[in-house]
Amino acid sequence: MLHLKKNEILSNKSVRATENRLSVLGAFLHYQKPINLKTIRDYVEGIDRVTLFRILSLFESKKIIHKIVLENGLIYFAICNEKCSSDFGCTHTHVHFLCNVCEDVSCLEVDAFPTVNHPGFSFSSLSINASGTCVNCSE
Ligand SMILES: [Zn+2]
Ligand SMILES: [Zn+2]
Ligand SMILES: [Zn+2]
Predict the structure, then answer these.
(1) CATH code for the domain defined by 2-138
(2) Which of 15, 39, 102, 121 has CB 3.0 to 4.6 Å from 35, enough for a Cys bridge?
(3) Cβ-proximal residues to 10 (8 Å cutoff; 6+ apart), any chain
(4) For residue 86, how far is its CA from the centre of ligand 2 (angstroms)?
(5) Cα(83) to centroid of ligand 1, in Å?
């Protein structure tokens, strides 16, 4: 079932399925939240560094995943939605939230994601990083 879904995600973004690509994608489906390189490496075990980097940058360019750079410089990756594409870019309008207590990172849809413009400039992306206390730590 999960295997089927992984193949479908790759073919939707015109990426040929290989064993390594499927297992890297598996890490994202397993955790269901933004994850860092270490988490991915621990999950996929046995894929060398170079291959892993190549897969992540392929996934990023095909908009299967997006990169999150936090203010503290830490880098996370999170799965994109089906509508993100290499032709039109990312369609999600969410903020990246870092919990100060458990250090979990989340992609959060918000009510009013701003649109920005400036004469003569064309914006292709807008990143918003936020931090605070997540729902699990608020209780
Ligand atoms: Zn995206
Ligand atoms: Zn938390
Ligand atoms: Zn995100």
Answers:
(1) 1.10.10.10
(2) 39
(3) 16, 17, 21, 22, 25, 64
(4) 32
(5) 8
